[in-house]
Amino acid sequence: MQPFVYNALPARVIFGTGTQAQVAQELQRLGCSRAIVLTTPGQVGKGKGVEKLLGDLCVGLYTRATMHTPVDITDDAVNAVQELNADCVMAVGGGSTIGLGKAIALRTDLPQIVIPTTYAGSEATPIIGQTENGIKTTQKTLKVLPEVIIYDVALTLTLPPKVSVTSAVNAIAHAVEALYSQDANPIADLLAQEGIRSIARSLPAIVTGEGGGEALLKARSDVLYGAWACAMCVGGLGMALHHKLCHTLGGTFNLPHAETHTVLLPHTIAYNAPYAPEAIAKVASSLGVINAAQGIYDLAKQLGAPYSLKELGLKEEDLGRAADIAAMSPYPNPAPLERDKLLKLLRDAWSGTRPP
Ligand code: NAD
Fold first, then answer.
1. What is the pTM (predicted TM-score) of this model?
2. Origin, by domain of life (predicted)?
3. 156 Cβ closer than 6 Å to some ligand 1 atom
4. β-strand 135-140 against 127-132: which pairing, if any?
């Protein structure tokens, strides 16, 4: 066994179907009685459902959560928290809503209960990304790690198949970068491989709807569990090129988060593969393929996900600036970060070619 350092993160995780019914109990367990429920504009219905379950324990609903956590929305939400005198933040939604909850916790120290409804995995990490003046910056602090995660598979049933695919590839990206992280360790390795396997096995059934009813619920359950396992890797480890590129494209060019991960991942794997052969072999075997980059590309494309940055709306003339930003401040990555090679990676991703 190689020497390693492993930091376990505190987490109370409740996983199942129908588990949102436990919100009031969990709130009281934290000693709280005045929750503010957060959602995106699209998920207000789910927020109202939780508000109803909480009854008098809910003091308000804030529904303006926005992708990439813009600071002006956070300021507005913190005002609402203070006006309502809330003592707990309850995020019901994907990474955007959970990001807002974390941003509030960072500024107020309020405890968080999160009910994730996508596979992005932010709920299990002590990382927050925030966007101000077109630049997305991230920081790692236990202040933003949610106290309780309630995974309720029933709430993921409405996630459209196409969004489910990109969100699940976003989860796989965490596991891939954990496997070749400079802080890699055997526990994160196990979680990463388990997460990728669980997602790859069950994602197709979510799209085809094969088996219907019970089978679909089982597939949703597998993918949500896999997403949690993948997210658990991120916490203690440093992410590398793939996440840096996604943050650049998201923060500076406002590209959608999960779709950007999906388009880029095959290309970032191909870029790093020669320098991290063992890690990439683990990705391939967890996917059940020979070539990990092609395996991700084929899986996502066959399931209807976007596969080029062009279709996400990035302009060809912005590729150079994106490569400049990605090469700007050095960070650990298996392959050297050379601007010309990064530009080629971005060009391939822009046109959507199948990686070698
Ligand atoms: P999202 O939260 O914006 O959700 C995408 C869309 O799906 C939204 O319109 C939302 O309303 C809708 N939606 C969510 N759940 C649904 C459901 N069950 N049924 C139907 N529609 C649903 O997107 P995301 O990809 O989950 O999260 C992206 C954000 O999370 C980005 O800002 C990203 O930076 C952040 N993120 C952070 C971390 C971290 O560790 N800090 C990790 C992953 C993602």
1. 0.96
2. Eukaryota
3. yes
4. antiparallel
Q: Both 197 and 244 in a single domain?
A: yes
ipTM above 0.90, yes or no: yes
Which residue, 130, 156, 182, sits at the end of a domain? 156
Which range of residues forms the domain containing residue 27?
12-156
Same domain, 147 and 168: no
CATH code of 82's domain:
3.40.50.1970
User: Is residue 248 within 6 Å of ligand 1 at its C-beta?
Assistant: no
Tens of pLDDT, residues 82-92? 999 999 999 99
Q: How far is CA 127 from the centre of its chain?
A: 11
Q: Is 117 in the pocket of ligand 1 (CB under 6 A)?
A: yes
As a whole number, mean pLDDT of residues 178-198 equals: 96
pLDDT tens per residue, range 250-279: 888 989 999 999 999 999 999 999 999 999
Provide the 10 A C-beta neighbour count for residue 329: 8
Query: From the CB of 291, is ligand 1 less than 6 Å away?
Result: no
Q: How far, in Å, is the centroid of ligand 1 from the Cα of 55?
A: 26
75 and 174 in a single domain? The answer is: no
Q: Taking CA 313 as the corner, what is the angle to CA 259 and CA 294, rounded to the nearest 5 degrees?
A: 45
* 17, 20, 67: residue to mutate for ligand 1 pocket, most atoms within 8 A of CB: 67
219: amino acid identity, one letter? A
